[in-house]
Amino acid sequence: MPELPDVEIFKRYLDSYGLDKTIKEVEIRSEKVLMDLQPEEFKSALAGNKFGSSQRHGKHLFVDTSGEKWLGFHFGMTGFFEYLSPGEGPEGHPRVLFHYDDESCMVYDCQRKLGEINLVEDKDNFIARKNLGPDALKEVDRDKFEVIISNSRAMAKSTLMNQEKIAGIGNIYSDEILFQAGINPRAKASNLSQARIEDLYHKMNYVLSEAIACEVETERMPPNFLLPHRTPGTSCPQCGVNIERVKV
DNA sequence: ACATTGACCTGAGAGC
DNA sequence: TGCTCTCAGGTCAATG
Question: Separation of CA A158 and C1' C15 in angstroms?
Fold first, then answer.
């Protein structure tokens, strides 16, 4: 669920509530999301520090800790941040809690524990190690996009979702982008005409930036978006036919 | 190089 | 009410 637009909203949320405050203590309720990181190492790397600027790459969010390392957040399928004012307790599935010295708190919540938090020495290095492609919104221009698509022998949907080719797009938004472009998700990427690819490029930017502008709230999205009508049994926002589900 | 499947996790909701 | 089953959909590894 957290794809590029979601993570961008998480970034803005953290930027507005969580930066420049001293971290008093880090509470770890699930070591699972720290992967192979030692909890004590994690805590000591952060205690007394502050979150500074943050940078998003695809579905990853990197946060300056004013220490030697950055924090790398990934949100899996169910991750998000929740800011707690002093006195408020966490609800839901808090996994890691960053307690500030003013008694407020930034919570990393991840119900299914498929997300992860890493200490990252060098984020470019991290991106390279993970083989992440260029960020879909910031680092892919028209020409680069055309090369990526026309060189991919996979299905259009798989190509858009492949983080090594383009970083940031997942199941939901690949569907939306292809829907807006009128392209069958099963179509072979390299078979698309240049005109189709160019249109697809604009639709990718349109969908992603529109979703961010709506702060990822489905109710606020344009009426021609498929996203709020993904469940089978509802009708197409553009032509009215019943929505059916196919597995791609 | 790509498709497919299952594993990882957990809980909300459906159905009985 | 309470149980079990299905589903959600990001990433990775194994297999074809």
Answer: 19
